[in-house]
Write a structure and sequence with these properties.
The structure holds 2 protein chains of 2 kinds. Chain A is mostly helical. Helices cover about 70% and strands about 0% of the residues of chain A. In chain A, helix 15 (about 275-295) runs parallel beside helix 17 (about 325-335). The N and C termini of chain A lie far apart (about 105 Å). Classes of the chains: A mainly alpha, B mainly beta.
């Protein structure tokens, strides 16, 4: 398109269209003009501005039928002209403004929405096109009526119109009108000019603010854009009119205006103190409504704009609008945890800004507002926490947190007021109340004595807690932050003192107070605190240490550390011996502890136990937290803290022991030890001291042995020399009280022996394995029937004869080769023993021996539980002593009588355990045991088996629940392996087989049959041939053809028998035997 | 008479159902019988109170009473039993006497562990030497000399002999303090005879004895009324010592025993 650059050519191009339009005012003509205008360059048009505008203005006034379209196009055209040019004449500006406003005037023939939109757009363009001075000329007292008209018309649009676009456009237009446009074109107002405008706009403030607040709080369906624009306009205008800087400069009395403008001066407002006060009050109402409405607005942009509002007003009107800040700050703080990240970050920025400028710190009033808010919130907190839903709780708490953060160092002012601190702490106490109804916490026990010697110490921070009033983790985190921020800014001594008071005041608050204390310390050290401003002075390490020490003292005080967390097996055993049972840890010099601590029989409801468990956990977590805070400085406190924690690590309640382990891990990390094991080893002197003192007062401190137990569990062989001393103490204490505390001590002895087996067992078991493997080889080799030749047969037979002779005492006395053999076989043994006997027993073996000695006494304890434990310990002792046969044998000799009793007449469980012990023992001292077993035990066992067999064969299903059945089962289950281990003679094997054979009967209960099976399987391992013969004599499924005619046909007793009760099982066993033999045959090549 | 007193004290204890007193702490790790103890707690606040112990294996252990651990172990008597340890002034100058017939002077400043000087006593007995400060930096030391009944007095640190007390003078091997104690013994017949050490508390109110019966006994000083029996050790107690801490609440009693342990008791607060 050709551009008309010079005014002359442009005039030539535009003139026809203008003339045409002046003559006939139609929309078409306007369009033509607009088309021409597009081709004219800006500077050229500037010259012709008024010429071009004239027909358009004329058209606006023209009456006619098609007015709507005409007005719209004319206004649009006008806007395009104004956009390209600048208004340089104040009169023109005023006239155009008036004319355009006239188009908007409501009346009988109200213009359509399109027209209104076009007009508002044009108005905006007009105001933009007015250059600085010109536009300022509009803002004189004399033009106030015109401005007022424009403002009210636009407000009317904003309020009454439905079209979103129109509303937004009107709002933007208003924004330009009050000189608060966002665009960069305008030069900033000077102070005086701003003051003048402020004076003018003060007249509109009521109208504007009320209508805007209506828009903001209006129907949510209007969409977010109008709301956002309205909020923005609101704070801009309020920020202008109520600006502190301006109000400060307002003269005391109203300025007298020239006479002719007296009417105008009537509507002009004087922004004096009274006015600003009353306006602030009114605005406060509006603001409150708006804030309440928009802080929960679903659209994030609205909330973001709200943040801006607070920011703007706080920055500009912190004095004038003081009364509104309660709500504004509340909104701001509440939005910190908004779901939209934009709002969140902006909110944080704003808060940060506020904090940095120290607005709060400097302005006493704001601090008062905040502390007042805090107080009322703290008062309402418990109620809110029990009534609100989780999101509500989150917002309430983030509000609380926000107040605290905003107060920053000023917190101390609040804390120094008793009522504030009291409210706040009570609120925390109530909100943090734990849910203690879960029985599972009490039920979960740590049984893992076996195998889990070194459980993976999880570095999990905290146990998940269950609260009465909330479930969401977020809520807890907020509360945590609240406490930490308190600790960060607050006076540590004051806070610790106060919460310690609560801790001691009532058992109700104890858990919560401990929780708060833990977080306070973490906060004071600045661990995991998220704050807006740095505190002035962080507490020194000495202060921290002082507080921690006093808290630790309180935590580990007997009354707070030894709580009833379970109705323990140990307690049960206490009850059996009520004489010794006090269960009450006595405070040194204090008889009051008896009153404080109820005896376990009194109130050990699941609820209190649960509560106690949680308290324990919280305190343990606290110890861990303190360690983390103090770092290496904590090493000095290990002297007092390590022992109690280890005590709890050995607790039977799973939760407590896990938490304690976590604490240990934290402590070792904090103090710079590589692992828990190092922590224990390096500080074993402290622990040993505690244990040895604890052992002296066993009645009061039944946990001393438990500490040792834990130490052993979590350490390695290098610990042994360090604790040997105290183990001797344990043993000597055990000697003094076999009756009352045996069960506790056995626990320790058990873990001691388990540890010894683990630490030193490797070479014991190596030896053992070697032994076993050689035995196995022997076994597989000797009966190996591969390619049985006639020669082998002959040799076997000869050997057999000879063995038999020897067995009958018919030893050929001279010249025979066997004569040499026997001594050579016998020789190494004594030699071995001698050398072993001379060397001093290694310490671990000596310990095992000492323990074994105690076991002998305890084997016949009254309580089954103790007996079982003793048997376990006994077995472990035997394993440790295996390499030292010289010492083991005499001990075995002493153990034997007691062990026999366990085997013959005891509970089935004990019988089974005793069999196991016997098996282990047999590995080393088989020769010693064999004759005794066959003399003392076997006859009784077999006879009882035989006598019981008919009974069990006849029995009904209920029988499996009787003691007799369990005994039978135990004996059968144990007997087989024992026979194998002891390598028993044929005669004894016969006895065993006879007794067990009847249990192969199909009439016997299933389980007994299986047990009998196992016996025979073991017998096969000892002597397969003999077993085969025995079985085939009962029942023989196959016929055997002699390999040579010269041999007599094989006749077996079991051949050709009718199928009877035994047949099935015997066949099964024979089949297994065949598999075994063929299996043994195959591998060698 | 004393027996009755002891019994009534024991009765009293059982009546009150108080647990038997426990040591505040037990120091372990000397790995030999402990023969002598000496506190040094007089220092100012940052100074950690220490306890010196001399044991049968010739080592002197310096125990830190804050951490309850050995700070250093001094070896200067050729693995022969150490039976006397004294400080000269602060805790950094130490005198020790051992069964190797030597008296060693130690300089422990700045963590040093060196023998500064030593005196050869030529005495084969068990008599401990005695130290008396005459002026700042000057001490007199009396020790049993070579001849059986001879006492030699030296000036330290110059080691010049001041005088030698010959048997005619009639002084038994020992110091005036000991003689005083001896008189008290004569008037009171001990129930549990057989004690290896006896110490008077610096404030002269109570006396502690280390008994062969594994127990430490506390007596009132004026009438020798038995006050308490401290039972912890499992072997003969060799020595008892009171600390000289400035703060009376932190003053301690230490006892070293043949069972390799040193028990620390806090008896000021309890009595």
């Amino acid at each position: 398109m050709a551009l008309f650059r010079s005014p002359r050519s442009a005039f030539g191009a535009l003139r026809p269209a203008c003339v045409q339009l002046t003559r006939v005012q139609t929309a078409e003509n306007v369009c033509r003009l607009a088309a021409r205008l597009a081709a004219v360059s800006g500077p050229a048009l500037q010259e012709l501005q008024e010429y071009v505008l004239f027909p358009l203005r004329f058209a606006l006034r023209a009456p006619g039928p098609q007015r709507e379209r005409l007005v719209q196009s004319a206004v649009q055209c006008m806007a395009s002209v104004l956009a390209a040019t600048a208004v340089r004449r104040p009169e023109l500006l005023r006239e155009l403004l008036a004319e355009l406003c006239a188009c908007l005037a409501p009346g009988p023939a109200a213009p359509s929405e399109d027209v209104k939109l076009a007009v508002t757009e044009a108005l905006r363009t007009l105001l933009h096109s007015a250059s600085g001075d010109v536009s300022l000329s509009l803002y004189q007292p004399s033009t106030l009526p015109l401005l007022g008209c424009a403002v009210s018309l636009l407000l009317g649009l904003v309020e009454r119109e439905r079209a979103k676009q129109l509303k937004v456009s009107a709002l933007k237009c208003l924004q330009v009108l009050v000189l608060q446009c966002d665009c960069q074109e305008h030069r900033p107002l000077g102070d005086d000019e701003a003051q003048q405008c402020g004076d003018l706009f003060a007249s509109f403030l009521p109208g504007i603010s009320i209508s805007l607040s209506r828009v903001v709080t209006g129907d949510i369906k209007q969409g977010h854009k109008p709301t956002v624009a309205a909020i923005r306009l609101f704070y801009l205008i309020v920020g202008l009119v109520m600006a502190d800087a301006q109000l400060a400069r307002v003269p005391k009395s109203k300025e007298k205006l020239p006479e002719k403008e007296s009417r105008v001066s009537e509507i002009l407002v004087h922004r004096g103190a009274d006015w600003s006060k009353s306006t602030a009050e009114k605005l406060s109402l509006l603001l409150r409504k708006m804030v309440e409405f928009s802080s929960v607005h679903p659209h994030w942009k609205v909330r973001l704009e709200l943040v801006e509002l607070v920011h703007h007003l706080l920055r500009n009107c912190s004095h004038s609008l003081e009364s509104s800040f309660t709500h504004l700050l509340k909104a701001l703080v509440g939005l910190v945890n908004d779901e939209s990240s934009e709002v969140q970050s902006r909110c944080n920025e704003v808060l940060q800004g506020i904090a940095e400028q120290r607005i709060i710190a400097q302005s006493r009033a704001l601090a008062d507002v905040l502390s007042e808010n805090l107080h009322s919130l703290a008062t309402a907190l418990p109620r809110l926490m029990s009534s609100q839903d989780d999101t509500g709780k989150v917002s309430t708490l983030s509000l609380l947190l926000g107040y605290l953060k905003l107060l920053g160092p000023k917190i101390n002012v609040v804390l120094n007021s008793t009522s504030h601190l009291g409210r706040l702490s009570k609120a925390l106490m109530q909100v943090l109340e734990l849910d203690v109804t879960d029985v599972k916490v009490v039920e979960d026990r740590r049984w893992g004595c076996e195998g889990s010697l070194q459980p993976g110490v999880q570095n999990g921070r905290c146990q998940r807690k269950y609260f009465r009033f909330f479930t969401e983790e977020k809520v807890f985190q907020l509360l945590q932050q609240v406490c930490r921020v308190l600790g960060y800014y607050g006076n540590l001594y004051l806070l610790v003192d106060h919460f310690m008071g609560l801790y001691g005041e009532s058992a109700m608050y104890r858990k919560q107070a401990a929780m708060v204390l833990n977080e306070l310390i973490a906060g004071a050290a600045g661990v995991g605190v998220d704050v807006l401003q740095e505190r002035e002075a962080s507490p020194s390490m000495d202060d921290l240490k002082g507080s921690v020490t006093s808290i630790l003292e309180e935590y580990t005080d007997q009354a707070n550390w030894y709580l009833i967390t379970s109705v323990d097996t140990e307690e049960v055993s206490h009850e059996q011996h009520p004489v010794n049972h006090t269960g009450l840890p006595a405070r040194p010099g204090g008889t009051c502890s008896t009153i404080l601590l109820p005896s376990p029989e009194l109130h050990a409801t699941a609820r209190t136990m649960n509560s106690n468990i949680w308290q324990m956990c919280i305190q343990l977590e606290g110890v861990g937290c303190f360690a983390a805070v103090l770092g290496k400085e904590f090493r000095l406190l290990l002297l007092t803290a390590l022992y109690p924690v280890l005590e709890k690590a050995g607790d039977k309640t799973l939760l407590i022991s896990e938490t304690a382990l976590g604490t240990l891990a934290e402590m070792s990390e904090a103090c710079g030890y590589g692992s828990v094991q190092h922590l224990i080893n390096d500080n074993s002197d402290y622990l040993v001291n505690g244990i040895s003192l604890g052992l002296r007062q066993l009645a009061q401190q039944p946990h001393a042995s438990r500490v040792l137990d834990t130490m052993l569990r979590h350490s390695d062989a290098s610990l042994l020399p360090l604790v040997e001393d105290v183990i001797q103490d344990v043993l000597s204490t055990l000697d003094q009280c076999y009756n009352s505390q045996a069960s506790t001590f056995l626990g320790v002895l058990h873990s001691l022996m388990t540890a010894l087996v683990q630490w030193f067992g490797s070479f014991c078991s190596e030896e053992q394995q070697q032994q076993q493997s050689t035995e196995c080889q022997n076994r597989t080799l000797s009966p190996g029937p591969q390619a049985v030749t006639a020669r082998d047969m002959e040799q076997f037979f000869l050997d057999y004869i000879r063995q038999k002779q020897i067995a009958e005492g018919d030893v050929p006395d001279s010249g025979d080769e066997e004569a040499d053999e026997v001594p050579t076989l016998a020789k190494p043994e004594p030699n071995n023993c001698e050398t072993e006997g001379e060397a001093p027993l290694p310490s671990h073996a000596q310990l095992a021996k000492d323990v074994l000695e105690r076991c002998i006494h305890l084997l016949s304890d009254r309580s089954l539980r103790v007996r079982l434990k003793v048997l376990d310990v006994l077995e472990l002792c035997v394993i440790v002593l295996h390499p030292h046969g010289n010492h083991l044998l005499p001990m075995a000799h002493r153990v034997w009588p007691a062990l026999v009793t366990r085997l013959i007449s005891d509970d089935p469980l004990a019988v089974l355990r005793a069999f196991k012990v016997l098996c282990t023992l047999a590995q080393k001292c088989g020769d010693f045991l064999r004759p005794r077993f066959s003399r003392d035990v076997l006859p009784k066992l077999t006879s009882s088996l035989l006598s019981q067999a008919p009974a069990s064969a006849r029995a009904r299903p209920v029988y499996t629940h009787t003691l007799a059945f369990k005994l039978q089962l135990a004996v059968l289950q144990g007997l087989g392996s024992l026979c194998e281990k002891l390598d028993m003679g044929e005669c004894d094997l016969n006895k065993v087989a006879d007794a067990c054979l009847i249990y192969l009967s199909a009439k016997q209960p299933r389980k007994l049959q299986e047990a009998a099976h196992s016996v025979f399987l073991h017998l096969m391992a000892v002597d397969p041939d003999w077993t085969w013969l025995l079985l085939t004599e009962t029942c023989c499924p196959h016929g055997y053809e002699p390999p040579h005619a010269s041999l007599r046909p094989v006749k077996l007793a079991g051949m050709g028998r009718q199928r009877n009760e035994l047949t099935d099982n015997v066949r099964l066993l024979l089949e297994r035997l065949r598999q075994r033999e063929s299996g043994a045959q195959e591998p060698p090549p | 008479m004393l027996e009755g007193g002891a019994a009534s004290a024991a009765n009293l204890i059982t009546q009150m159902a108080l647990p038997p007193p426990d040591p505040q702490f037990v120091l372990r790790g000397t790995s030999a019988a402990v023969h002598t103890l000496h506190f040094s707690c007089g220092g100012q606040e940052p100074d950690v109170p220490v306890l010196f112990s001399g044991s049968e294996n010739g080592l002197i252990h310096v125990w830190n009473l804050k951490t309850h651990r050995v700070d250093t172990a001094l070896d200067g008597h050729g693995r022969k039993s150490v039976y006397c340890v004294e400080t000269m002034g602060g805790k950094n100058r130490l005198l020790s006497q051992g069964r190797d017939q030597r008296i060693c002077l130690w300089d422990l400043e700045e963590g040093r562990t060196a023998v500064m000087d030593s005196v050869f006593t030529e005495n084969v007995g068990f008599c401990r030497c005695s130290l008396l400060m005459v002026a700042q930096g000057r001490w007199l030391m009396a020790m049993a000399a070579k001849a059986l009944e001879e006492v030699q007095v030296l000036e330290l640190p110059s080691k010049t002999s001041v005088c030698t007390l010959k048997p005619e003078v009639g002084a038994k091997l020992g110091m005036p303090m000991c003689l005083k104690l001896w008189q008290v013994y004569k008037t009171h017949n001990l129930v549990n005879a057989g004690i290896s050490d006896i110490t008077i508390r610096p404030d002269k109110k109570i006396v502690a004895t280390a008994g062969w019966d594994h127990r430490i006994r506390i007596f009132g000083w004026k009438k020798l009324k038995p006050l308490a029996v401290l039972d912890y050790h499992t072997a003969t107690v060799h020595c008892v010592s009171f600390s000289n801490h400035k703060n009376p609440r932190e003053r301690l009693l230490a006892a070293g025993s043949k069972d390799h342990r040193i028990s620390i008791w806090s008896i000021y607060t309890q009595t």
